Amino acid sequence: MSRLRVGLLGCGGIGARHVAALEALPRDLTLVACCGRDAAATAAFAAAHGAAPFTRFETMLDEAALDLLIVATPPAARQGQVEAAAARGVHLLVEKPIALDLAGARSMTAAVAASGVVASVGFMYRFGDAVERWRRMAAAGQTGPVGLFAGSYHCNALHAPWWRERAKSGGQMLEQVIHLIDLVRVFMGEPDTVYARAANLFHGQTPGYDVEDVSVIVFGWDDGRIANLHASNAAIPGRWAKEWRLVAERCTGQFEDWNTAVLTATAPDVVEEIVAGKTDPFVAQLADLAAAIGEGRPPAAPLAEGEAGVRLALAARRSADERREIRLSDAF
């Protein structure tokens, strides 16, 4: 497979993270174009990576001859660019959440399905060594079904101005906790119900900050299985604590992150396995996408999974707003 010509839409922090991953795969991918709103900042970013700068997305599509587009803008800034790229036959990696509403997410996935391009969502937690190890054990019948998922996401930062506004980011549930929501789906499948509570307890006097800074989500299955997720943006400054525990029929997993876990078989004998991986999930995600494009297969995190994650996150947010349990089949 020849190297893919890659364009980047959105030259902020997450865009830089994707470019670093791209540059770790020089045989597969070459950054040729960057697009951002600030001309000077975009030019400086592009020059640092040997790419051409653009401030108009349509011009980049017309002139850069892209094979792959990485969409790393804030979700509120996505206004048809994904659909336009798909219509041109450009493959896609779209950061989560792919949209702020279900109509926007469905528009993207429909455009991808109609075009036949390969498109992935930025659920990079899936690519960690510890996550992969559990999935292999589950596929081999070693864990049994997961009955309880307990996850947490805690930080303490003001983040970018757009992040603090629900109309631009969707709030912490949609912008950050969605990673854990995706893992709930990966490990347990689609839930039947959701109940959530959320509040802005600590940032009420912060100008422009109207998203939740504490939340709890409980997903339920009609067969009795449960997943609970709690999050905050008022914990220890400078620390990003993302952890989860799985309790399955024959195994328990305590995950410090996507690469690090203690997996303990509980039947027939108690046997502990420590996983301490080093995989960069951004690199692994891009490598999988490049391989999927070359092989003509779906990626490990298809864009449709991004739509499913948005659906569950929006249902949780609606439950918190309305303070009631919601049956997901009736949510939208």
**CATH class placement of the largest domain:** Alpha Beta
Q: Return residue spans where pLDDT drops below 50 for at least 5 consecutive residues.
A: none
Overall pLDDT score: 97
Oligomer: single chain
Order of helices and strands: EHEHEHEHEHEHEHHEEEEEEEHHE
Number of strands: 15
Roughly what fraction of the amino acids lie in strands? 25-35%
Per CATH, the superfamily of the largest domain is: Dihydrodipicolinate Reductase, domain 2
The CATH topology annotation of the largest domain reads as Dihydrodipicolinate Reductase, domain 2
Helix content: 25-40%
The order of strands across the largest sheet is 14-13-12-11-7-10-9-8-15
> Globular, elongated, flat, extended or rod-shaped: what is the shape?
globular
Q: Which architecture name of the largest domain does CATH use?
A: 2-Layer Sandwich
Global Rg? 20 Å
* SS element count, helices: 10
Structural description of this entry:
The longest helix has 20 residues, at 303-322. The model has no long low-confidence stretch (mean pLDDT 97). This protein is α/β, with parallel strands linked by helices and 332 residues long. It folds into 2 domains: 4-122 and 283-302, NAD(P)-binding Rossmann-like Domain (Rossmann fold, 3-Layer(aba) Sandwich); 125-279 and 311-330, Dihydrodipicolinate Reductase, domain 2 (2-Layer Sandwich), CATH 3.30.360.10. Helix 4 (81-87) runs parallel beside helix 5. The strands form 2 sheets. It has a 9-stranded mixed beta sheet with strand order 14-13-12-11-7-10-9-8-15. Strands 3-2-1-4-5-6 form a 6-stranded parallel beta sheet, with helices on both faces. The chain has 10 helices and 15 strands. A hairpin with a 2-residue loop joins strand 11 (241-248) and strand 12.
